[in-house]
Amino acid sequence: MERLPSEDWVQNPHRVSSCGRLISFLCKHASATNDSEISELIFSILSFKREDSAFLKAADGEAVISRARTAHVDIVKCKCALHVQKRVTTPCILVTKRSKKAQGFKYSLLTLSSSNQLEPCFEFKLPYQLTGDVSIFNGPTVLWTHAGYVYYTSLQAGEVKQIPMQLSHSISGELPLHRGQIFILGLQNLSETSTSDQSTSQTLGYLVQNGQVFDGAVVLPYPYITITHCILVLSAEEVDGVLKAAVVAATSKQQLIYIEHGIVKDVCHLPFVQPEDIQVVDTGRSGCLFVISFHEGHVCAVWKEKFQVASHWSGVSSVHVDDFMGYGTDQMLLIFKDPDVESSSLGSFLLTDLCGISYSVRDPLLPAPNTSPVLPDNYFLTIQALESRLQSGLTVLQELQRELRVKERVLQQSLQALTDVVSEREPIITQHEQVSLSILTEVGQSSVPTVIQTQSQVFWLPMTSPSSSSSSSSFPASSFTEPPAKRSKQHNAGRNHDLNTCRLAVTAVTRLTPLLNSGCVKCHVMLHYVQRQDAFALMSSPTPAVLHCGQVALDIQSGFQTQLLNEVKEDLMSLLVMLEHWTFRIDSPDHSLGDIDSWIQNRVGCKRVEVSPEYLLLNSSGPSALMLLCWHQINPFQGELSVHSSELQMLQFLDSLLAYLPISCTVQPVKGTRGQDEVQIFSLALEKEVVSLRESVSLLLCKEEDNRRKSNDKTSEPGSVDSLQRCREEWHRDVERSKTELSPLVDVQRYRKLSQSLSKVQLEGDLAALLYTQ
Amino acid sequence: MAHKLYKPVSLLDTWIQENNNLVNKWKQQEGGMNTWNQDQSNLKCLSSEFHKLLMKIQGVPLLADHAQLELTVMYNACVYSVALSQFSEAELLFAQATERVLQMRGEKPVTSDPPVFWRKIMKSLKDTDLNASIHWLLCLQWAVWLATCRLKMILELQEELSSALDLLCTEVCDDRRRKGKSPDTPLLVLDPRRLVELLRVCTLIAHGAEKLSEGESSEALNDLQNASSLPAPRTLVAYTHLLSGSCFAHMSHPQMALQCYRKALETDCHCVSALYQSMLVYRQLRNTPAEIQALRLLHSALMLPSATEPVIAGTHLLSQSLLLCSQSLSSFLSVPSALSVLHSLALKCVLHGRVSEGVEHYLDLLAVLHSEDQHQVSSKAPHLPRLPELYLEAGAALLMVQRPDDCITLCEEVINTTQDLLPERVVLEEPEQKGEAINGDVCAEHEDKVEMLLWSGAAYLLQGHCHTHLKDWKQAMTHYTRCMNLLMKVRFKKIGCQPQILSADMVDEQGTDLCVLQRLKGLSLCGRGICFIQTDQLREALRDLQLSLQAFPECVGAGLWCGEVLWRLGRRQEAAACWEKTWSFTTQSTAENIRLYLQEPQTGPLLDSIELRQKIQELVPT
């Protein structure tokens, strides 16, 4: 149980505690006669007397180790270990004998029997000297490392055995399984591969008794093995063949770590470096302590439960844990270093469990200043430890109080629920949940599906007309009433042999009204293509084929030509009309919004619309990504954002905006969700009214031939600059004409028809307005 | 025994899990409505848990794939350290972290000079995946520097800090999105972008305040104008306007200053210092109605319960009050107590013709003082005059609104409280310097005695005025005489000379005890003289009035009444000369500097100057 503190203290007696008694061993060289020298091992057994507050000698004895004059006898280590044959725990003493004549070192392990007799257990010879790193485990087994290998010997083994693998950084310990299993943990010496890979297979565990190899990471995770100085397994069990262990380990990083099933559960900073040994003190009701002894006589005690340093001491010669008082719980005995030491008595010591029991004795012969600074300091630390325990108790109490409050609340709620049930009322708690749920479902129904629908229709395009694809070439192109603009395109496709002819082109024709009003237009799709069958066919002019693919719903927003925006204000207007529109009020009561405008501008693909600088055009990624934004800052804490885009896009944009905005801010649509449909209907009705008025009036004024020409012109490509220009000219001409004919004659029939249709349209408009205002 | 091979959970994963659990725990608590104490204990609890986790992580040698996690946990732990004002602990952690990172990269540890050391770290990690993480830590260091008023460090590392700013502000969107998705990314307890935004504004404000207090207003204004457009908590936006206003006031643009103060108040109604500062500007502009209005608003703002309470601090981990603690800033933000504001308001009202309003304020003030413990008040409001003085001022105001009975009661109170403490004899020493006498630190006890005596005297004087007002000449004379008797106990002593009787030419400074003494003497003599006139004891009257003019030559009442007595005695030429002389004084020019109760009474028998002039006119031709 005790380690060699340092080379300077070899003179000190080796001590070990057993059955509440303290046993100290000392080697003595006495010259019996002139030519022979007897090397004796002297031991004395001390037990604590409460009435005297001192350790008094209970028994002593001696054994002759060697009578050879040249032999040099020394104690290597002593520790209590289980004697397997006798089934008792006995103090074991490892003694080295080195004769000057013979080569090598001779070691013998002695045990102290219950009748206080020293008995030799086994002996072994080594060609080298055992240095500090020797352990005595149950068996008794002696285990040590030498030159990268681990060796052991025991009564059962009968000889010195070598662990069959080379390990760097080996750590040995005992598993408290059954009778105790000695294990060795180490890093496999894999010098060439996978040093960066921290896989678990690197850490190996080896059981000495049966030579089994297991994954060492279940005891100690990988990076710790290189820095762990000593280890203590608290518990170990096998669950489904997997070892589960709880371990404390002291590392070179001045930490004590608690590991359970290979996971670091707790950690505690240690006040000293170079830990050498960990022991457990079971103080009974007050819990367990870990006592860690360090190099150069430092000792530190850590509470197991709180995992905090309870107290620490310096100048300690050895630490023993046993029930010295006979109370049934453990105490620790700290024996302090004394300059002059007699083997039979203890100089100064402290016997304590840090919770009530504390005996300390100072040698009266010792000069006071040597020890006096130590003990008051220790008392102070003890008080500190007690104080910290008190604090932890307080936090536990607070937690309990909190729990109590929660319980009370639950009770109250249950009571409320009960009274509700009794009085046949609806419970209040569930109502809240219902409301939130309904909001969720409603939103889901109204918004998302439209987007998905459009997308899926496009996606299913080849499936809708599978029958016609096979008979594509035979399909007569003339069966469709094609607009002139399209026909010209088809001609081009036939004539040119450049890359464009091979490219898939989709041209769609639709009426202007749906184009302006909704994002979704249904139209016929026809595929024009040139078949490239072989080399011959290429030489002769290939016959273009036209394939009708059926109807398709198109999201026309993507097709709109945005380059127009910077030239004419009307284009911006029509874009504004075409895109869906939302206005949000952004309100951040505690935090100013900052420069939102420049944030929008810094987004990819954003530019300002020249004709109307308050609008920002966002044309970033993918198709149908056109977006018009208008930010109006009301004050530093409020602003209004107008978004013209598809719904999905708007949501995406809002999402990224929210990440930028302060957490506490709220975004609310300015108009309620209710108005959206009605607004659209109303605007449609108004538009229809205007269009029909214009059309019918100009029809009324026009002559027949004009009319016919116009119907032809109308079907030009809607998006292009030319056609737009033409439309404007047309309209201008109409206006001019109405000016020249001051009082034109009008056909009564046509006028009646006009007024009839107009009144019908106006009626619809009124209805829509009524809906809107309600 | 068979031990199957099984794969234990990797340390990295468990630690990330632990970190994320802690962050989520905090986020949940943050949303709740907790009291300040609960928040503090939550903070402490989480802080220790983060530090423990950090300890675990730092318990093993730093591996490359642990570095990201370690820096994240370090950031989280440091955020709590800073939030709990444990700045040195945080800085120690920075040093540890950077040392470990450098060790991992096989570089030597650097010097302890912070700017050098941060520069080296930033350079070393510039193109690695730890670049962002180390910037987070730099931001925390920035916070520590700001909180400990080390602006120089911030200026020195300005380049690195602004690069951190750019990095954190631009990366955040994509970063957040990515992080939200994968569970194995360690979470942050405080968005670094929010932190860096707050730091930027706070630094500009702190720097601005520093410059302003050094007198470099235009430079400060620049900083503050920059700060005002940045995203910031409401309070801070108000601070930027407030300080901008102070800059303008300093650059003598009072109207611009007022504009800024208004903005500050509009932004944050809790920013009462803006009201106070605008009041000061109005005072400087001699715009008394506006000043009174501002005082009234300031007082009612200070009486709001929310004004004195700190703004909800627990909701954010790092509050601005933690980061802004410089002396120069708090001097701009400080506001006098509600009581002293109320006193100023009352005094202003009385002095500027709103006497009845002023009286109401005085009565309010006295009521508050009565309901509270007097010791508490004096410690709470250092600028407030002492209680007897307030009583006297209130009394004088009451007399002005023709409530002599109330005035007498208040004066009685003063006389009763001081009665037992009055000295038998007191020597008034010539003040060596101007400031010393006002401070009164030299010999407080002696000063106290003199004060006591003067208060008591003033109380008798006011009572005399009251009885004069009530035309009870006999009572009035008694009180004036009592006042004079008290004043006789004071002997004046010049340094190195024997105590002597005072003469008027020794009084050269207003506000000193000596001046007060002389005024009291003059006024009480004048009062008694007037009483003598009313009882037709003209000789006695003449004597008193002449003595009064000796003690206090500027006393208008004494001059006019002296002339009147002379006139009645038939010494008309003398009378005319006396009147002419009195009119030649620039009257009431220094009214504001004189205590309210020492001003000449506006009530009681008065002489009409026009009539007197007519008398002189009649006299001249004859």
TrEMBL record, chain A:
Domain of life, source organism: Eukaryota
Record field: compositional bias (Low complexity): 468-480
Region entry Disordered, spans: 468-494
InterPro entries linked: FANCB
Annotated coiled-coil segments of the chain: 383-417
Entry keywords, A to Z: Coiled coil
Single biological process term from Gene Ontology: positive regulation of double-strand break repair via homologous recombination
CC per GO annotation: Fanconi anaemia nuclear complex
Protein name: FA complementation group B
From TrEMBL, chain B:
A GO BP annotation: interstrand cross-link repair
Top-level lineage group: Eukaryota
Cellular-component GO terms for this entry: Fanconi anaemia nuclear complex
Protein name: FA complementation group G
Native source species: Sphaeramia orbicularis (orbiculate cardinalfish)
